[in-house]
Amino acid sequence: MSSNWITPSTRTELIEDLVSGVDRYNPSNVGILEDYLYHQIRSEEYDCLANLAILKLYQFNPDLYNPDVVINILIKSLTASPLPDFNLCISLLDERATNVNLDEPDPLPSLLPVLKGLHRLLYRCRFPAFWTTYRSNDLENLRDNYTVECIGFENSVREVVVRAVKAAFTQISTERLGSYLDINGIALETYVKTLGWTLNSSTGVIGIPPNPDNQIEATVVQEAITLPQLTRVISHAALKV
Predict the structure, then answer these.
(1) Structural domains of the chain ordered from first start
(2) Quick one: pLDDT at residue 54?
(3) What are residue 205's DSSP bridge partners?
(4) Environment class of residue 66 by beta-carbon count within 10 Å: exposed (0-12), middle (13-18) or buried (19+)?
(5) Cys-Cys with 77: which of 85, 95, 104, 147 at CB 3.0–4.6 Å?
(6) CA distance linking residue 163 with residue 82, whole number of Å
């Protein structure tokens, strides 16, 4: 997983040269990286390091700042939870960009707290609260102007849910999983089948196959202490009495 994060299989040779070489600090390449971001949005691909390179260029060159690009980067990084991608992106934002003269009002200051709130809910596995907040009237602007353009955004959020559920459960009720995924009925049954999980229709219980994270195994720890070591410990304790 870490190797794919560092070098995604979908990254082109051109982007690899920009991300890995000294050209990542060349402001003339920002357009190429921004185009690559919009390719990620349209194709459900994701490349965190390439997106971080854009934010770094904005840091060094405030005149290049594009708030819509920043918002889209943050939206893409949301669905990488529980990886630290979102916080890495936030760490590269500073006050200089908000002082840049723009033709229109900057939407980032108002949307940034919203995105941070959504990230906290995902990171803490408060999935029903995430969907309630995300679908609220207050976030209509985010949905209508940004996430609607990010192909597969909601499915990517559901993949975050699946990762968490696989790590914590061996069985889960359809009602509970449905609230986590924000789907129910036939759509939920179909989704469960695509995951390879089993559904007992009579009990409404979904079985999750064993994996290293959801199996409880007893661990026996044996300490090998030699007599000379024990003698030194006792002697040291005696001196302090």
Answers:
(1) 1-97+104-154 (1.25.40.250), 169-229 (1.10.10)
(2) 96
(3) 173, 200
(4) middle
(5) 85
(6) 9
